[in-house]
Structure formats: structure tokens, C-alpha cells
Amino acid sequence: MDLNATLIGQLIFVLAIIMAVISYYLGKRKTQTPLVTTIVGLVSAFVPPLAIIFLMALVLKNDVTETP
What we know:
Elements (H helix, E strand, L loop, with lengths): L4 H26 L3 H11 L3 H13 L8
Helix pairs in contact: 1-2, 1-3, 2-3
């Protein structure tokens, strides 16, 4: 099997989109700044092990309580 730069770039691009969506969803529930969380998730997609660690940290974080 031949891996070329185009295939790797496409995989990272798809991972970046998926990470941005998941980070926004989790950031909205678990942080007060979902936009910053989305940007960090998008950037972390360029280093896949870092992206997985970032997602694990978000999943394990407690939900933010809404104060009226």
C-alpha cells in the first residue's frame, strides 16, 4: 500500500473537521468559552495523539452549571 502526502493531508483535513465539531459540542456543555475550545480542538487535530488526549480531557471534565 502506497501512502502519499495527498492522502495524509486529506485524512488530517477530515480529522480537523470532526475535531472542530466535537470540540464545539463538548465546549458548549463543559466550558464557558466554546469558541476557544473549538479552535484548540481544530489545531490539535494536526497532531492526532494530542487530539485524542484533548478529547479525553473534555469528556472527563464536569459540566458547567448555568446560573440564572
